[in-house]
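[job 4417] fold queue: 2 targets
>>> target A
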Amino acid sequence: PQFVRAAARRHGDDPAVTFMGETLPDDAITFRELERQSARLARGLIARGVGKGSRIGFIYSNGPMFAVLFAAVARAGAVAIPISTFIKAGELVRVLRQSDITGLILQRSLLGADLVDRLCDALPGLRGCTDPELRLDDAPFLRWVVSSGENLPPALRTLDWLDAGADSVSEALLAAVESEIHATDQLVEIYTSGSMALPKGVKHNHGPVMARTHYVRGMVSSIQHGAQIPAALPMFWIGGLLMYLLANWEAGAVTVCMERTLSDSRMSMGSVLAEDDLASMPEMPTKWALGMTETIGPYSYGDVLRVPGYPLCPPLDHIADGFEVRVVDEAGKPVADGERGEIQVRGYALTPALHKIERAAHFTPDGFFRTGDMGVRDGARIHFVGRDGDMIKTAGSNVSPAEVELEMQQLDGVHSAYVLGLPDAERGQLLVAAVVPREGGAPDAEALRAALKARLSSYKVPREYVFLAREEIPLLHSNKVARRELQKLIAARLGRD
């Protein structure tokens, strides 16, 4: 709350967030209006029983309303839970149930998709419900849903319902509520999912989020008062929220939003990117290395963009303020120079917990987070070499999918490749590859196999190949490849399902 009020005093009527729409009208909001509108909405939320620790979800695209919602929920003392606009009905019901959301606010439509219909597909009980005081077995803590737009189902309320309550809550009461919101209170919960995992809720408190906002603003020289900075990533992800909305908010820069972001493409994040995908990404002034939702964005950066032999990201040459990083073996002992181990991180801005998951599942007894990222110690430098869970064990040998994918993408006719293991009685796992041909290309399995044998050890060469169109690669709402679904697809194509 102090942050929002201070930005309004400092930046006043300067533009804070603008929106350029394809299917929705253009919009803009100043820092002063952002404070005023979020204060009124916070009062409306308080009037409807929202308070310290209430869990309020919202599904909104980048734009002024996203910023207003985030600020309003935080100012009411509640936990803001932004949900992906890409999310499908099957995953949405799991997120709504896992997150224990009490109230949900959603945008009616986005790029031709009716988000209310998607919600009703996720929670079929809404379709026949006439009482907006909800009691749903699929989302047992959900009590109300509010949406923009018209002609809503009877079970949903309009935004006017929240606005109407604001007049019953005074500015003095809002100020009293805000005075009891502390740095140690939970601010946000980001729902994310790995390529092989179910959604998980990552908690972060007010203090660490503000500290990371200040750090990033200071690290990126282009974030200056009045600068117009396009928000290339969705703000429901920690990257978009921190690197664009919050850092710009502190500096007085303009967050320029569009209906489509970089993540609306068919770019499969988390794999070795194809060259044209890599070229389409905005250039960052800082060579960020590793980061994650659990660390509120990047916790490391490099002096160079790439080191030969380590193509996945810049090296970990520098660790962000407030973090400690170590590389350890399976026994938790630091690895020697040149050895491989798990990268673990600890610090003030590390998530205090994952929602409804025991700390021991992801944290060491001395407070380090087990990232699952594997690194090689190289003096003071650490090289990222892949995810531990992605390693494939075939005929007694470990294979890094990223290493094989990188080699495959250098071959003629290959746009992108995805290497996985299928259960195999003889080899433990059979190494297989899904290949997306380059436009106009027609790669042949035998030719690929022969070319890879000249580049890789024989055990790293996939035994079977499946050719897929780019749109056939299943993606999670985070744009990561859904490797579990891809495994099923490849197995079915090879008759091994």
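>>> target B
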Amino acid sequence: MDPMTLRMEMGAELERILSFWMEHAVDETHGGFHGELDNQNQIVPGADRSAILNARILWTFAAAHRITGCEAYRHMADRAFAYLSQHFVDRQHGGVFWSVHPDGSVANDRKQLYAIAFAVYGCSEYYGATQTPEALQLAQALYRSIEQHGFDAKRGGYYEAFARDWGALQDLRLSDKDENAPKTMNTHLHILEAYANLLRYWKDAGLEQQLRHLIEISLEKIVQDDFHFGLFFDEDWNPTHRNVSFGHDIEGSWLLWEAAEVLGDAALAKRVKTVALQMAEVTLEQGIAPGGGVMEELHIGHGVKDTSFHWWPQAEGIVGFYNAYQLTGDARYFEMATRLWCFARDHLRDLEHGEWFWHVDAAGNALRDACKLGFWKCPYHNGRACMEILHRIPNSI
């Protein structure tokens, strides 16, 4: 597949993905968006709504409006920003609630920095797309809440989660499958992503300093000697878990490079480039199944843990390997980016009900046991992959 064919196919896929969300996600009764749809697009009654899903919808449609000018995408972004502002923002203590009920009342009031980071990401992109002052103001306020309560000035990095009033929590986990650790790769990766996007639109010295810190923490503490991300850490940055997440490795490789580009520090960018390419190479060598895409997870010493292929590592792999191709000119990376797109196109797209399946089995057969829209299932990974390819491959080639 040549670059223009890849661009054309993924441009068409972006329209298909966004059309699904405009048709099925909007809750006309209660406002905002449904909390969950099953694999046949049926509403799951009473499903709570996550800040993550709302913020990712906000980012996706704001970015799509910014690059296409489509007013229908603007209306979706407007809806997402209004709902986030009205129902998720904690006006008393700052930050955003983890989840709300379908009627908009608070379901879980914990302060997970991961979710607050996505709210920064979405609000800053909405400001970039619409120049709405309130969006930048909210992004700035959420950034300050992370810095005030979450930053570890002594050991570096950020703590994972807090109670509503920023007091201590016993259970810090993002989900049941995560380890109960005070610091995690996943939260740091997405704070970095959010801060890089905010810095595009707000040239603040403090924000610039903290983005640099996040890059350095990633290089010095989170990326391990084998060029995989460590996933969970104690307060002093000792790894507590040695699983490998291939999807996060390849996603992190390009997000680190993006952050370094936004920061504009040439010396730091040189360090990031070396590490990012090593991460992409290790994923290419170890994380790709012979007949499929990016594998889900590896237990060090025990082989592959999950042999199914989830939607989001394929999307991030397309961008990560294309980024490595841009940095090196190495055709192997371009071939892998196109291979992952073909895998997603042929196996993950639900041609009957729309969007992508959550996952397929080792043979590429769709597994229909997971939701199509939900607490974590969103248009951010696959929609962003499409937009990244549109951005990275000029239409004039």
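[job 4417] complete. Note on B: The mean pLDDT is 96.
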